[in-house]
Amino acid sequence: MTDSLPTTPYLIRAIYEWCCDGGQSPYIAVKVNENTRVPLEYVKDGEIVLNISPDATRNLKIDNDVIRFSARFGGLSQEVSVPVGAVKGIFARESGQGLAFQIAPADEAERPTGDQQPTTQEGDTGPAPADTSRGRARLQIVK
């Protein structure tokens, strides 16, 4: 039996498109690890939130294993590379709506496992933390 494709990159691309189509700004929350290439001066408590809107990035590519783009930080253009497994969530800045993901252990963050489960989130300024009480994220219906 073949391994199933991970759902996380597809969900990230879907929420990205949904944000752009609705005139909202897509942001990703990232758990920084040794495989994450971001400007370290903007990392706080091991995490960074990045604006990935078309106006804020250049050459954005959301692959199944990594998100890459160029962006300006403090006026300087920098290359950014984020393993999909390090993405904690993607959300619209204006509404807070989006998805949160369970983060793989640091040694697995660069290899999507396909079992990262999304959590819907509405009305918050960032992604909701995944419910880890049972070892899995949970789906939360928001009306």
CATH architecture designation of the domain at 24-121: Roll
Coarse shape: globular
Strand order, largest beta sheet: 2-1-6-7-8
How many β strands by DSSP? 8
Distance between the termini: 38 Å
Query: Strand content of the residues, in percent?
Result: 25-35%
CATH homologous superfamily descriptor of the domain at 24-121: SspB-like
Helix content: under 10%
CATH class of the domain at 24-121: Mainly Beta
Biggest beta sheet summary:
5 strands, antiparallel
- Average pLDDT, rounded to a whole number, is 81
How large is the count of helical segments? 1
Using brief descriptors, characterize the structure shown.
single chain, 143 residues, mainly beta, SH3 type barrels, five-stranded antiparallel beta sheet, three-stranded antiparallel beta sheet, 1 helix, 8 strands, 10% helix, globular
Walk me through the structure:
This protein is mainly beta and 143 residues long. The chain has a domain at 24-121: SH3 type barrels (Roll), CATH 2.30.30. Helices cover 10% and strands 33% of the residues. It has one helix at 8-21; strands at residues 26-31, 47-51, 57-62, 66-73, 76-83, 87-92, 98-101, 118-121. The strands form 2 sheets. It has a 5-stranded antiparallel beta sheet with strand order 2-1-6-7-8, with helices on one face. Strands 3-4-5 form a 3-stranded antiparallel beta sheet, with helices on one face. A hairpin with a 2-residue loop joins strand 4 and strand 5.
